[in-house]
Amino acid sequence: MSELNNIALKIIGNGKGILAADESTGTMTKRLEGVHVKSSPENRLLFRETLFTSERMNDCIGGVILYDETIKQSSKSGKKIPELISNLTSVPGIKVDTGAKTLANSKEEKITEGLDGLRERLNEYYKLGARFTKWRAVYIISDKYPSKLAIQTNAQALARYSALVQECGMVPIVEPEVLMDGNHTAYDCYKKTTEVIKKCFDELELHKIDLKGVILKPNMILPGSSSGKKITNEEIAKLTIKCLKESVPSEVPGVAFLSGGQTEIEATENLNQINIHNNTNFIMTYSYGRALQQSALKFWSKDIKNIKGTQELFNHRANMCSLAAQGKWSKELENK
Ligand code: 5MM
To answer: What CATH code is assigned to 3-334?
Structure first.
C-alpha cells in the first residue's frame, strides 16, 4: 500500500469523515456576523478550537481542513493547531486554492486560482504538519452551463494542483462542486455532475496522478434549490451512486461529500441512504462544513464561554454523520 493511500484511508476509513473548517476569513466573518459575534482572529480560533477539542473528534473525524490563518495559530494549551489535531489521531489538512474568480470569456462562471507559487506554499504547509490539502472548483447549472470552458479549465487546474500536492507527499482532495442553486431537475444535476467529474479524472490521469492517493469531494445529486421539486432520500442516493460509478475510476479509495447548503439532517440522511445502497468499492463519507458546524455555532454565539454545551452539539453531529457513513443512522438515534 502506498504512503498516500495510507493517509487517505486514515482520513476516511473506519466510519470517519472530514471536518471542513477551512472557511476563508471573508466566509468566516459572514458566518460569525450572521450570529452576531465579532469576527476577530481570537474568536475565529476560539470557535474552531472548541470543535477540535470535542470528545468525538477521535472516533468520528479523520481529518480537519484548516485555513491558512488557523494552521499557524496555537491553542490555549500552547500547542500548535496541527499538533493538537494530530495528537487526537486526526490528520491536519489545508485549503490551498486562493478562491474562485470570474472566468474570462464566460463571466457568469468561475475559475479557481492558486497555482502560482503553490509548490513553495505546499512545502511550508508540510513543515507545519499538513498531510492533505483541498482545492475547490465551483460550477453553475443552467441550459448552457457549466460551459466546456469552465469544465476544461477547472479540471486542468485540479490536476496541476494534485500533481504538486502528491510531489510534496500529501493527499489532494479534489473538490468539483456543482452548486445546487437554480431550478434544474435532479436528472440535470446528475448529467452535469457526471460530465464534470469525468473530465476531472481525464485530466488527473493525463497528469499521472496516483489515484489511490486522492479523495474526491463532490456534491450529492439534488434537484435545484429553487426548482420546487422534491425527490426522496433514496432517489438522491441512487442517482448519486450512479453518477460516481460512471465517472470515478475504481482505484480512488473514497468519496467525502460536501453538504453544499443542505440542512444538517438532510446531509446526514442522504449520506446514510448512500451507504445503505452503496454497491461500489468506494468509501462514502462526509467532508462537511456547515452540516457539522451549524447548530454548534448557533449555540456558541449565545454564550461563547459555554464550551461544554457547544461541544455536546458538535459531538452529536459528528456521531450522527459517522453513523450515516456506515449506513447505521436512524431518526430515533438522531432524536435521542
Ligand atoms: C468551509 O467552506 C469552504 C469554502 O470556504 P471559502 O468559500 O471561504 O473559501 C468549502 O470549500 C467547504 O470546504 C465545502 O464547500 C464544504 O462545505 P459545506 O458547508 O458545503 O459542507
So the answer is: 3.20.20.70
